[in-house]
Amino acid sequence: MNKFKALLLAAPLLLLTSLANATTPVPVFATDDEQNTMQVFNFASPSVVYVTNETLVRDRWTLRLHTVPKGAGSGFIWDDLGHVVTNFHVIEGARKVTITLQDRSEWPAQLVGSAPEKDLAVLKIDAPPELLKPLEAGTSNNLAVGRKVLAIGNPFGLDTTLTTGVVSALGREIQAANNRTIRNVIQTDAAINPGNSGGPLLDSSGRLIGVNTAIYSPSGASVGIGFAIPVDTVKKIVPELIAHGRLVRPVLGIESAPDQWASQYGYEGVAVLRTAPGMPAERAGLRGIYRTRRGGWQLGDVIVEVDSQPVNTYDDLMNVLENHRAGDEVSLGVVRDGKRRQTSITLAAPE
After folding, report:
1. What CATH number corresponds to the domain at position 287?
2. 210 and 201 in contact (C-beta within 8 Å)?
3. Going residue by residue through the chain (351 aa), what tens digit of pLDDT does each one get?
4. According to the model, what pLDDT value does residue 221 have?
5. Residue numbers of the domain that contains 286
6. Where does residue 309 fall: left (phi above 0), alpha (psi -120 to 50 degrees), or beta otherwise?
7. 121 and 157 part of one domain
8. Residues annotated as catalytic (active site), given as ranges
9. How far does the signal peptide extend, from start to end residue (predicted)?
10. Residue 62 within a domain
11. Counting Cβ atoms within 10 Å, is residue 102 exposed (0-12), middle (13-18) or buried (19+)?
């Protein structure tokens, strides 16, 4: 009888417990932001590749040449033809470059073209189309500080590593391997370490917005200051590298003197060393350095402005010309013998 009473008393409690369990939702630990991060990673990571670089060395004892690993970095698939984009410094001096896809298959790569001044290079592999998943290129002209970004790469040889952060600043400048200035660079606090170079910087929709290229760090490891070449720059350069193997920019037809030559005379600009016969600069009457009657050398024309943009160095001049094409007419501000004048010049295609 006592057992029967105990069962009658326990039954309502068991019923209430069952109802409570039935109405209590299963906890979801992933936030919307975490879900987005995981989705972007799963979507984009098959497009990211591992780039290994081997170079030739001579054995000091046998004098024989053999290949040894020189470095490694990241890259990403540009199109279904097998073009892969990476940093120039990742493959610089390479004798042999190998691309490892996400399925661990390895493919020998050929260099299609490079732009050291922009730290970009294009490689090509003959992998079947089903293994090639190109990244969708977004835009970088609408980025704002605080936007979420994701970086995927192979830091320290650890393949397919994801880091996240935000756009920390825009319009930064860094130096390329040949000491040219890369302008309008994206700064991010997403951790970028050695091996991340050449990998993609993505927005929250999984679109390419930059190519990770450098970090600022006294120790050589990420301290939250990384840089990426904006995708709008990449979209202009990569097709040129595929078509021509190099950047094709218009020319004035001058050989420039070292930057310090103009500064020795108190000018900030590009001193013309000599003009090329038949080229625009000669036709426009520009004059290079010449000998005086006494046998000394006299500074000729110094280019100080192009289309109202100040030109202080050769690097400035090259950056201005990158925005033009052969056949464009530009206005040059030129100083000769202390007097400034304006002249128009039609840019030519490089020989």
Report:
1. 2.30.42.10
2. yes
3. 454 444 444 445 454 455 455 555 545 555 788 999 999 999 999 999 999 887 644 555 544 544 444 578 899 999 999 999 999 999 988 888 999 999 999 999 999 999 999 999 999 999 999 999 999 999 998 899 999 999 999 876 677 889 999 999 999 988 887 778 888 999 999 988 778 889 999 999 999 999 999 766 565 555 678 899 999 999 999 999 999 999 888 989 999 888 887 777 788 889 999 999 999 999 999 998 888 777 777 888 999 999 989 999 888 898 888 888 888 999 999 999 889 999 999 999 887
4. 57
5. 254-346
6. beta
7. no
8. 89, 119, 197
9. 1-22
10. yes
11. middle
247, two tokens: 């950047």
d(C-alpha 112, C-alpha 92), whole Å = 13
Check whether residue 269 and residue 312 sit in a common domain.
yes
Is residue 37 a part of any domain in this protein? no
Burial of 15 (0-12, 13-18, 19+ CB in 10 A): exposed
| CA count, 13 A, side-chain hemisphere, 255 | 6
pTM of the model: 0.78
Count how many Cα atoms sit within 13 Å of the Cα of residue 95 in the half-sphere of its side chain: 10
Phi and psi dihedrals of 152, rounded to 5? Answer: -125, 130
**Is residue 70 in a domain?**
yes
Into how many domains does the chain fold?
3
Q: How far apart are CA 122 and CA 125, in angstroms?
A: 10
Which residue, 154, 157, 213, 161, is CA-closest to 186? Answer: 213
Say yes or no: 274 and 302 in one domain. Answer: yes
The CATH number given to whatever domain includes residue 176 is 2.40.10.10
Residue 299 domain flag:
yes
C-beta separation of 217 from 154 below 8 A: no
Boundary (domain end) residue, out of 194, 213, 244: 244
Say if residue 239 is in the same domain as residue 282: no
The answer to whether residues 157 and 215 belong to one domain is: yes
- The CA distances from residue 192 to 116, 169, 270, 290, in Å, are 20, 15, 36, 50
- Domain-terminating residue out of 79, 98, 131: 131
- Shared-domain flag, residues 225 and 192: yes
